[in-house]
Amino acid sequence: MNLWTTGEVAKQRGISVRTLRYYDQIKLLKPSFRDENGKRFYAEEDLIKLEKIIILKKLSLPLDDIHEVLEKLTYKQILMSHYNYLREQQAKLEMSISHTTSLIHMLDLNEQLSWEKISTIVYHAEENNNKKWLDYFEKDEQEFLQRTMPKLNNHNEQTQAYMSFLHRIEWCIKRDIAPESEEALQIVSTLMAFAQDDFQGNTTLMDKFWEIRKLPVEDTGLFPISDEVLSFVERAMDHLEREEDLY
Question: Where is the signal peptide (predicted)?
Answer without folding.
Answer: none
